[in-house]
Amino acid sequence: MLILIAFLLVLAAPVLAQTSASPSTVAVASDSNAPLPDAPNPAPRKTTSYSSWTVRPMATGEKIIDKEFVAANGLMFGSSIATVELTHRCLENGACSLVPRALVRRRAMYGVGLPAEAGITVLGYYLKRGGHNWWLVPAALVTAGNTVYAVHAAQHMR
Questions:
Q1: Which is nearest to 80 in space by CA: 114, 121, 128?
Q2: Which of 20, 30, 66, 131 is the most buried (most CB within 10 A)?
């Protein structure tokens, strides 16, 4: 769990670091006749080639919540529900013994898993809105982890 939280913080750092800074003025205290620096070019630079792992601008009218986004997050939530149910059945049978004591009840499993996945959905939304092509990676990692643990719980049931 701590590794997942650390991974999410590492993924969220570039998103959180992106701020829209307002232009600031610098007052020249002693020399009012000094020439002003050149103003930045207001026209944006145009780049045409993007690699598959870089940031690309959102096209006008492009939806953030599209079929891919809904499918990726639907699979993530579905795998979480399957994992909770299979793990709970495994615990009832006494076959799973490595589940932390705080997560033995079904309500506790859902109480930890669903808010964490809601946060990952929000992270994916902001990554996709920002034009990052790797917005799918956090949801895919959680889905893979849930799937591995669900298969493990299913194999150890009696």
A1: 114
A2: 131
Which pLDDT band, with edges at 50, 70 and 90, does 97 fall under?
A: confident
Residue 21's pLDDT is: 47
* Cα distance between residue 6 and residue 154, in whole Å: 28
pTM of the model: 0.61
Element (H, E) at 12: helix 2-17
pLDDT of amino acid 23:
47
Strand partners, 55: 132
Q: What are the structure tokens assigned to 35, written together? A: 């020439």
Chain Cα centroid distance, residue 142: 10
The residue to which tokens 């959102």 are assigned = 58
> What is the rounded CA–CA span in Å between residue 129 and residue 122?
10
- CA 132 to chain CA centroid, Å, is 11
Q: Which amino acid is at 105?
A: R
Nearest to 76 by CA among 44, 45, 113, 28: 113
